C-alpha cells in the first residue's frame, strides 16, 4: 500500500490495510460492526476506498448473467 502512494500518512496506510484485507472476509451483516470498529480505532480519519470501475463492471455483468442479485453498498 505504501509503495503505491508514498505520500500517504502511516495511519491512513494502516487503516487501509486493516480495512481492505479484512472487510472481504465478513458476512454482509457484520460489515457495519467492522466499519464501526475501524472508525473507533481511527477517529476523524477519512480514507476513501480505491475504486476499480472496470473490474466492478465486469463482475456485476457476470453476476447479472448468472441471475444473482446485486446489493448496493451503503456509503
The residue fraction in helices comes out at 40-55%
Approximate strand percentage: under 5%
Shape: flat
Distance between the termini: 22 Å
Q: Unreliable runs, pLDDT <50, ≥5 residues?
A: none
Kindly report the average pLDDT value: 86
Q: Measured on Cα atoms, how large is the radius of gyration?
A: 15 Å
Structural class: mainly alpha
Total DSSP E strands:
0
- What series of H and E elements makes up the topology? HHH
What does this structure look like?
The two termini are 22 Å apart. The radius of gyration is 15 Å and the shape is flat. The chain has 75 residues and is an all-alpha fold. It has 3 helices and no strands.
Secondary structure topology:
Elements: H1 10-22, H2 31-41, H3 53-65
Short note summarizing the structure:
The chain has three helices and no strands.
Features:
mainly alpha; 49% helix; 3 helices; 75 residues
Amino acid at each position: 500500500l505504501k509503495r503505491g502512494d508514498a505520500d500517504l500518512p502511516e495511519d491512513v496506510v494502516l487503516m487501509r490495510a486493516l480495512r481492505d484485507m479484512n472487510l472481504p472476509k465478513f458476512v454482509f451483516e457484520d460489515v457495519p460492526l467492522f466499519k464501526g470498529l475501524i472508525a473507533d480505532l481511527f477517529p476523524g480519519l477519512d480514507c476513501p476506498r480505491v475504486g476499480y470501475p472496470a473490474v466492478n463492471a465486469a463482475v456485476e455483468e457476470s453476476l447479472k448473467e448468472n441471475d444473482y442479485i446485486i446489493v448496493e453498498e451503503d456509503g
